[in-house]
Protein: ARAD1B01276p
Organism: Blastobotrys adeninivorans
Amino acid sequence: MSKVLAVIGATGNQGGSVIRRVLKDLPGKIKVRAIVRDPAKPAAAQLASLGCEVVKGDSSDPQGLEQSLKGADYLFFMTMLVPKAGVEFAQGKAIVDAAVGAGVGYLIFSSLPSSKGFSGGKYPVPHMDDKADIEKYVRSLNVKSSFVLPGFFFQNFLTTMRPKSQGDGTYQFVNCISGDVKIPMNDIEHEMGNYVTAILANPDKLEGKSSLAVGGMYSLNDAADAMTKATGKKVVYKQLPENEYLPNLPEDMRQEMILMFKFYEEFEFMGPQTQDLIEQGQTVPMSKPHTFEEFFADHPLDLE
């Protein structure tokens, strides 16, 4: 008999990745229930056309969410980034409590390490620390679980860190950290589904595990080289002082993002064991994680 996987965040990059990969790799074994805020929206209709059961549910309505999760065997969930400490944790706790109340037996969470914990309080980054606290809360309960830690998205180089023309034939993107600092990066649209499907295929083996879902450790200079190779146009990275970099960030996220990048610079995401954890994590997924080169082959970067 098929098991039921409920997905919260079904219309986003992470949830969508999970749904597509599960339908492709586990047909007949896993049925997908997409939990959405508004089943009448086109994105929800598209999920239904793929064969998903589409059900209304939201963490702001815990009782309604619990009802929408009844009968599910697994839940994949993520939480929305909120630039205020504690808010994202409350969101995640509401989801977890609803799932446990509904009798869901196995939770899969898109988590992150605690920057505050790894740095001894030096770099408190709410969207990292709250996710780590959600993971800790899940682990404290009598429910099976597994965790996927995705790192920095390659997709950021198509959006917020997209290179800009300098008017001399070169293209530049900026940040506040050294161009040589290595950061765990991934193709989130490929990797989240890649790893979650592996967990669903091997739930007992991966129960209680935290898997780093990344393609490798890349610096921003590496990113510039990959974009140069992919586009045939010269792309360079420039490090800016923090005060000059701030205007490049959303106003309500500036301090949080600066602290996040500084944490990456000093602590490599999960401290000295980061590279070992990446290598361990790369043994988990259904297929090999994407490299930068594979990502840009799938997502052509058109620099004008």
The chain has a mean pLDDT of 95. Residues 87-102 form the longest helix (16 residues). The longest strand covers residues 30-36.
